[in-house]
Write a structure and sequence with these properties.
Structural class: alpha/beta
Bound molecules: glycinamide ribonucleotide
Distance between the termini: 21 Å
Largest sheet: 7 strands, mixed
Number of helices: 6
Order of helices and strands: EHEHEHEHEHEEHEE
Strand content: 15-25%
CATH superfamily: Formyl transferase, N-terminal domain
CATH architecture: 3-Layer(aba) Sandwich
Strand order of the largest sheet: 3-2-1-4-5-6-7
Number of strands: 9
CATH topology: Rossmann fold
Length: 200
Amino acid sequence: MSLKLAILISGRGSNMQAIHRAIKEGRLDATIAAVISDQPAAPGLAYAQAEGILTHVVEKQKGEDREAFDRRLIAQLEEDPPQIVALAGYMRLLSPAFIGHFHRRIVNIHPSLLPAFPGLHAQRQALEAGVRYSGCTVHFVDEGCDTGPIIDQRVVAVLPEDTEETLAARILEQEHQLYPACLQRIAEGKVKVEGRKVLL
Ligand code: GAR
């Protein structure tokens, strides 16, 4: 059964593009109901528009708190309710109300092997910690910061000459494969959560 997605972005949107490519190439049985950005100038919006994908901007207003902002985001999403809300470089923390509304239906990609290096600048954190391997993680979103049930991960070697940029680029290549593959497993009904864990 085709999986109906809404994708939230804040910037470049290369993961959103990878998801869209996977759909076009028949590797992912899904449709994209909308791409929503909190940033009106997000470069990913132009790609989505050029590809004929419906886009919306839900921008934080001056003095608006997270709950009020997320209520507007929920209202926008519910205009054409998705089965899965896929975060793809969406750089805003979600309120408990939003997470509760889409319970176990929000998926995120993060550029580290969680639970290592949650939050911002995950690649920089990995370099500073001197780890030999990092990678990326696709996980369900819960109330914590990058703490939800892990769906799958890819390992990437950290090289002695790596900068934040080169490491980020090597991890990103894996992100572009991992995210569509995880969404396909969800589309096939193969991802079951028990307690805090996704069953293998
Ligand atoms: C990706 O590396 C993604 O994993 C990361 O931001 C980048 C977005 O790139 N997300 C986070 O760090 C979330 N905490 P994209 O806009 O090209 O998909």
